[in-house]
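Quarterly update from the structural biology core.
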Amino acid sequence: MPLTRADADITNQNEIRATLHRVNPDVVIHTAANPDPDYCQLHPEEARGVNVGGTKNVVAAAKEFGFALAFISTDAVFDGAKSTPYVETDPPHPISVYGETKLAAEGEVRQLERHWIFRVSVLFGPGRDSGGSPGKLNFIEKGLRKIANGESYVVASDQVGSATYTLDAAQSMQQVIESQRYGLYHLSNQGSCSRIELAQRAAQLAGFDPSLVKGLPLDQMGRPGPRPKYAVMQMQAVREAGFTLPRPWEKALTEYVNQFWRA
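Predicted structure, tokenized:
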């Protein structure tokens, strides 16, 4: 049963408690957050209120009502200083307010015996942005819309990470949750790519000239919120637990553009 802000404000403890008491779930998948690194950097107290305070409210309800909690986290908990993929045992070191708040929220979730933490990156999929909000554009659709309107799409040329198709991520999360194997999991489609490679491939699949995607070094993008330059995540925990790995990002992107992109 999906819940939105209209059902309960994540920052309002009484609303969260009353709603979850009424729903009486066995498992809650907690996706609510402010996922915009730039907004969080400029509004740190608001970001902490939503990302950390909101998670505290959900954790408190889980303690009271006894449901298991799955929390969606991010590659932004890392600083990007590595040159090899991050595994679940690597120590986090966020460089942005957004990353700090998500790591703090992970700490709240870890208080629960029955929890899962799924770190994901560069989400794309039908009908939702990277934070799960309806009506907003994800990284891929934002670029394709710009190109379709005759604009260039400027992205970081040197930011490398893992891309995650929301439909594939949902299937993998379901597999892990139903197994009741609790813990921390990195989750994305297989392989790594730069932001410019991802956006250019999407443009090409949509029938546009990929040269309309322009690259700038990350430190020249003029963004308030720092991003890790290298944030490839290795799915060590998924593999060791014997779960099926999501398909390569290229195949997932092809399906997404072919089935869901409409100019």
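Residues 128-135 have pLDDT under 50 and may be disordered.
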